[in-house]
Task: inverse folding
């Protein structure tokens, strides 16, 4: 029994926190709620005007033209002073004009309600989207390594939309319905209490039916959604694997599988439509019965002279005005749960701590020696990826890191960019611990090409210019040449303007990498230029590979083995010492011999 | 590329297109007619209620009649029950029609997809096809079924109400109907703009989704390039557009209803004035009940009008979906069996296997040329004879055209000039399914279907026993890793096989091809992702597996190439060298350079792995 209590307090907590997004939109939101009140008032006035006119005409016809008019007090006095019902009946255009005026007034506020609530809720949604987006980018690297993209996108789009709709329409709709019920109840009961009770007799069952039905039917919708999901998944898989399907001649098999999925979707949806048919016709019957009851009993009370014909029409109008919102209320209340869940899911993202920099971290000169001192790293304490890694590189030197897959090569580079921080030991640049250097400063100056680089879905030109947007075409051309990507870029019909990604061409892994190097190269080059002007120093370069031949000229070669530096030195030094490098080098030499022998 | 772009919306309503589409829904025409009939009855009931109110007021209140109440209640209840029945009926009919049309069109589309050639798939991303098959078809079912409901109810309601009003009082009827054209014009004007407004919103919304997608997928890269702030700045432009577009659309719809209601209130006011005066006039033609009925008609008339306007706007908006679906249904496959062939051997869904000839595996390219529909020439006057049981290796850089030759063998594409013969007969004289049933095809990007490992291997031969499946797995040396998995052969591989590594998927897809016992084997970089050790073991399996089968191998692993009976070296879509391994090496040409480079790369990688493993021991 404690659970619901906790849920309520959690809901309230969420709603309270949510006010942060409403800052600046509160006045509009309040305005739209007040507009609802005015709209409801005017909509209740219209039936009263019609009733007054009908009664005045009836009384005049029956020779009782002197009776006071049956209108709200603030209007009745004016007519009564001029002769009551007869005057109204003979000047019925006045009521007709009032009718139009009231309708225009109501319309104006209905418009304002829509406008203001849209302005408020859209601004709120905009704030949510921006907060989510910038927060996601601020989360640390590790979060994104583990992130489930589909789920995150759903939270940022569907959930935001759910919350927006909750604010833009649901809250206001609930408010409107409550006002309507209260107002109708007080107006009707001031006319005739017994008829009021009869007119409301089927309202609770109608509301209850809606509330219960939409709770119950959610399960069916969920099942239908699942069937839909299965169909999409089946299609996705079958169409992606269309070559396999054809290669094995399995068209029949696949279309049978498709039929099963399509049938499931069909059956689930038909089931929903069947219960919907029962619900809609049943609740419509109740609604019509309620109107009928009001009409019949109204006529009964009218023939007994307890109320007027106009009163009967008023009751019938009010009831038909009330029924729809009440039925909707059941549905909306059921949907509220979804909005709360959506809010919770949004806050799960926002509550994940963003990547923080070390306090006091700032820029530092980077064109200096780099030292790894007893560096250790692991994602968890049991499983170490790097252990006791120590080496020093002088500015301007080239370092080659060699090792088998999984030996920890890329992890070293992740640490150098502070995508992760070391677990033990330290990395020093120019004698300064890199944890005291601002992350963004460091990253923008340590060029790093990921193994699986991501290209933005825009033109190749824009992708190249992404690290420096003011680059001239000549500069881009130059970078493309240096990285040997100009060749394949020119082969595309649209050259540098070719779109990459989903809407454009698919690049091969190698091509992607070359563009990634090119865009990073821009950053490096800039750093180089900057470095030279500050005293001719050039930062060290790291190259990761498993091939010896490309790396023989490096100033320092690090041989990694299971997260440790097994050997370090220059090529000349390493081939002379017994060890991994020498063994691989010998094998390589043997390979060369074998090749020559084979060719003969 | 044009085919990929989601088309923007056609401006004019294209009646011919909808007619064609409704033609595809033939089995559901009877439902559609039933819906129309039900809606007419329902509209009649809706018109009857104000008449009943009128009668009640005039009979019981004005004239004070005491009798006839039971008869009145009975008629009221009868109308009520009839209306309830109508609502139930059209909900059911509509549900059935909507879901049925959905399913029917989806099946038609899927059948067409299974017939379409690869050229279609090359040009159309899977995402687009899926959205045609899911959201577009759903939208069409909904538009047709529910649009029809609203359209028929509205039209019938306006007509029947007009008739009722004319019968009651001609002048008041004319007054009410006088506002109809104005409301209609306003409704059409607004509905068009509102829909256009929401279209912009939807478009912006999908851009926002795309931006989130890119932001999240590219977050790691953005971090290394320190692009966070620039990305946020670009994103805020998008959300700003979204906000103003949404507000614009919302303001338009907020304006629409008040305007139509106000126009409606003019009708009510006119009726009230005219009716009130009429009741009091000397002729006394208008009764209080009639006045009350007219007030109800006048307040009720704007709803069907705006709903007709909405339906037409809706149709216009759904037209793009209709165009996409119809164009997919009407795309003709480029590769298909001739009628005589189908007559003899059956089609891909109902093959006549009893008439199928056997296959030996001789393959001949006779002056074959091929170019893609884009005009890009890939093969020019290419001739090649492969005897049954021989192995042909294709070597060259990515994108050089190796896959094209293989695709031609598989008849995924057909030659644009020349002939391909299998066992001496032009393969177009046999059915596509015949060839593909005798084909084993292993791709570089191995594609598995969700399900168990066992089911995936069985895909190659649907009637294979468990023992045969396990034998096939053993043959490609996959049993070791399979038995290490928690559930062995019954392990779920996940969507697209994603729970397995690429190397493991390649082994499974190899086993899947093997179990089909094909006469022709195609390996497209089939073992590129397995580790060196497994690769070496697999090598002997490949040799055994290919024995007695004609095979085409695209490979960059040297061991596979070396033993081929013939090697074709392809560069920029041309065959630049052909011969056996030793012949080609002796030429010291392109193949030699390729080979030497590859030889070193492979050797070193193996050395690292072996040395590292040795050192760890």
Result:
């Amino acid at each position: 029994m404690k659970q619901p209590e906790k849920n309520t307090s959690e809901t309230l907590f969420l709603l309270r926190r949510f006010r942060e997004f409403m800052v600046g939109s509160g006045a509009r939101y309040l305005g739209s709620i007040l507009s609802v009140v005015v709209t409801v008032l005017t909509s209740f006035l219209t039936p009263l005007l019609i009733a007054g006119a009908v009664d005045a005409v009836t009384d005049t016809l029956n020779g009782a033209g002197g009776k006071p008019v049956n209108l709200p007090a603030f209007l009745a006095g004016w007519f009564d002073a001029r002769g009551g019902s007869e005057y109204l009946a003979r000047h019925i255009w006045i009521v007709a004009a009032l009718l139009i005026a009231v309708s225009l007034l109501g319309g104006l506020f209905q418009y304002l309600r829509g406008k203001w609530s849209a302005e408020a809720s859209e601004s709120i949604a905009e704030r949510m989207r921006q907060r989510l987006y910038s927060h996601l980018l601020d989360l640390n690297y590790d979060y994104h390594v583990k992130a489930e993209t589909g789920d995150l996108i759903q939270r940022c789009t569907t959930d935001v939309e759910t919350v927006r709709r909750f604010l833009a329409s649901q809250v206001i709709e609930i408010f409107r319905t409550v006002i309507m019920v209260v107002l109708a109840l007080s107006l009707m009961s001031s006319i005739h209490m017994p008829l009021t009770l009869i007119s409301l007799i089927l309202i609770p069952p109608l509301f209850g039916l809606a509330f219960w039905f939409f709770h119950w039917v959610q399960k069916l919708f969920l099942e239908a959604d699942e069937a839909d999901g299965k169909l999409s998944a089946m299609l996705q898989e079958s169409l992606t694997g269309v070559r396999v399907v054809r290669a094995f001649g399995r068209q029949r098999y696949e279309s049978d599988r498709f039929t099963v999925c399509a049938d499931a979707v069909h059956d689930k949806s038909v089931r929903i439509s069947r219960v919907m048919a029962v619900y809609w016709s049943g609740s419509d019957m109740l609604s019509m019965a309620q109107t009928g009851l009001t009409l019949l009993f109204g006529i009964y009370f009218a023939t007994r002279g307890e109320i007027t014909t106009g009163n009967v029409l008023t009751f019938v109008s009010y009831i038909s005005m009330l029924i729809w919102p009440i039925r909707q209320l059941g549905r909306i209340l059921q949907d509220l749960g979804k909005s709360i869940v959506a809010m919770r899911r949004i806050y799960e993202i926002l509550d994940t701590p963003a990547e923080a920099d070390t306090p006091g971290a700032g820029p530092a000169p980077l064109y200096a020696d780099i030292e790894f001192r007893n560096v250790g790293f692991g994602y968890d304490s049991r499983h170490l990826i790097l252990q006791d890694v120590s080496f020093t590189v002088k500015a301007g030197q080239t370092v080659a890191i060699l090792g088998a897959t999984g030996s920890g090569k890329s992890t070293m580079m992740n640490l150098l960019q502070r995508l992760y921080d070391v677990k033990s030991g330290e990395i020093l640049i120019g004698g300064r611990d890199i944890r005291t250097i601002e992350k963004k400063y460091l990253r923008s100056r340590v060029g790093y090409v990921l193994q699986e680089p991501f290209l933005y879905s825009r033109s190749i030109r824009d992708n190249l210019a992404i690290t420096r947007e003011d680059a001239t075409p000549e500069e881009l051309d130059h970078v493309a040449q240096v990285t040997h990507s100009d060749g394949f870029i020119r082969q595309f019909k649209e050259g540098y303007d070719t779109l990459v990604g989903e809407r454009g061409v698919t690049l091969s892994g190698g091509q992607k990498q070359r563009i990634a190097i090119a865009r990073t190269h821009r950053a490096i080059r800039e750093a180089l230029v900057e470095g030279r002007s500050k005293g001719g120093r050039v930062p060290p370069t790291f190259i990761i590979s498993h091939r010896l031949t490309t790396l023989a000229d490096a100033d320092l070669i690090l041989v990694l083995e299971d997260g440790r530096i097994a050997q370090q030195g220059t090529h000349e030094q390493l081939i002379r010492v017994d060890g991994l490098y020498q063994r691989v080098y010998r094998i390589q030499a043997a390979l060369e011999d074998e090749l020559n022998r084979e060719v003969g | 590329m044009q085919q990929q772009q989601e088309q923007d919306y056609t401006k004019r309503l294209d009646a011919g297109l909808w007619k064609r589409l409704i033609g595809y829904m033939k089995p559901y025409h009877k439902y559609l007619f039933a819906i129309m009939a039900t809606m007419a009855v329902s509209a009649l009931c809706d018109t009857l209620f104000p008449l009943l109110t009128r009668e009640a007021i005039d009979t019981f209140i004005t004239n004070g009649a005491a009798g006839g109440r039971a008869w009145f209640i009975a008629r009221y209840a009868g109308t009520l029950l009839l209306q309830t029945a109508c609502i139930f009926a059209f909900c059911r009919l509509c549900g059935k029609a909507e879901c049925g049309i959905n399913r029917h069109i989806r099946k038609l589309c899927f059948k067409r997809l299974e017939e379409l050639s690869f050229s279609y798939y090359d040009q159309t991303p899977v995402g687009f096809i899926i959205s045609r098959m899911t959201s577009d078809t759903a939208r069409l079912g909904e538009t047709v079924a529910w649009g029809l409901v609203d359209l028929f109810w509205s039209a019938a309601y306006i007509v029947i109400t007009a008739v009722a009003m004319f019968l009651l009082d001609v002048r008041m009827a004319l007054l009410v109907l006088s506002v109809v054209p104005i409301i209609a014009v306003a409704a059409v004007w607004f509905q068009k703009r509102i829909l256009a407004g929401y279209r912009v919103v939807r478009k912006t919304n999908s851009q926002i989704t795309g931006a989130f997608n890119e932001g999240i997928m590219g977050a790691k890269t953005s971090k290394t390039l320190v692009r966070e702030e620039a990305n946020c700045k670009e994103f805020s432009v998008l959300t700003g557009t979204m906000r103003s577009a949404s507000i614009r659309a919302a303001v338009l719809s907020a304006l629409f209803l008040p305007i139509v209601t106000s126009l409606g209130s003019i009708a009510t006011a006119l009726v009230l004035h005219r009716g009130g005066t009429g009741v009091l006039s000397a002729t006394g033609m208008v009764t209080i009940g009639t006045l009350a009925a007219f007030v109800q008609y006048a307040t009720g008339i704007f709803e069907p009008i705006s709903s007709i306007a909405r339906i037409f706007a809706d149709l216009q908006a759904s037209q793009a979906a209709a165009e996409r679906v119809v164009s997919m249904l009407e795309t003709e496959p480029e590769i298909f069996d001739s009628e005589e062939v189908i007559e003899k051997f059956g089609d891909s869904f109902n093959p006549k296997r009893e008439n199928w000839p056997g296959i030996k595996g001789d393959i001949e390219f006779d002056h074959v040329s091929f170019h893609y529909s884009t005009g890009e020439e890939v093969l020019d006057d290419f001739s090649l004879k492969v005897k049954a049981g021989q192995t042909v290796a294709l070597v060259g850089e990515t994108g050089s055209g190796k896959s094209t030759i293989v695709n031609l063998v598989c008849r995924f594409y057909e030659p644009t000039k020349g002939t391909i013969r299998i066992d001496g007969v032009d393969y177009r004289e046999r059915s596509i399914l015949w060839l593909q049933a005798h084909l084993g095809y292993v791709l570089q990007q191995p594609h598995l279907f969700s399900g168990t490992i066992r089911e995936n291997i069985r895909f190659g031969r649907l009637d294979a026993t468990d023992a045969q499946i396990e034998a096939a797995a053993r043959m490609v040396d996959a049993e070791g890793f399979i038995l290490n998995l928690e559930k062995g052969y019954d392990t779920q591989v996940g969507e697209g096989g994603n729970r397995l590594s690429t190397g493991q998927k390649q082994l499974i897809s190899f086993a899947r091809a093997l179990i089909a016992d094909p006469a022709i084997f195609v390996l497209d970089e089939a073992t590129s992702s397995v580790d060196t050790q497994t690769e070496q073991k697999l090598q002997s399996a490949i040799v055994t597996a290919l024995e007695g089968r004609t095979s085409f191998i695209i490979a960059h692993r040297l061991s596979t190439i070396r033993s081929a009976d013939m090697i074709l070296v392809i560069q920029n879509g041309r065959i630049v060298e052909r011969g056996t391994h030793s012949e080609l090496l002796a030429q010291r040409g392109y193949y030699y350079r390729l080979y030497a480079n590859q030889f070193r790369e492979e050797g070193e990688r193996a050395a690292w792995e072996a040395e590292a493993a040795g050192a760890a021991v």
